[in-house]
Each structure stands twice: as C-alpha cells, then as structure tokens.
Amino acid sequence: MKASEVIDIIDRQPFIPFDVRTSDGRVYRIDHPEFVMRSRDGNTLYLQTDDDRNVRLDSHHIVAIEDANAPARA
Fold it and tell me: What is the CATH number of domain 3-67?
C-alpha cells in the first residue's frame, strides 16, 4: 500500500478507528491517531498496540486497511 494512502487514513477528520492488516496476516487496531506515528518519509509506521507493545511497520507490508467495527448508534 502506498504510504500516502496510509497517511490520508490517519489524518482524516473525524478520525475513524481502523485495522491494519499486514502481509504476514497480523492485524493491528488503531483506536486513536496518537497511537500511530510515521517516519519523515512516511514509509515506516510506528504503532502502539492495545497491550502496550510498540511495532515498527514498513508501509509496503500493509495489504489492507479496514474501518474498525463500531457499535450502532442509538
């Protein structure tokens, strides 16, 4: 996936939580834009997982980004 596509999803307003699916099948949930940082060139993402792990991810290994499922609003 192009780095610019990932940056657009991170920066969209209002922010919508999303899942990042990688080439090795792992899925990372991003609940807030502060839980992801990007390198200056945008090709590397640094994710903080819900169990407080830090993951460095090359954007070339992102195969899909999906909006996170959210409960229906009343």
Answer: 2.30.30.100
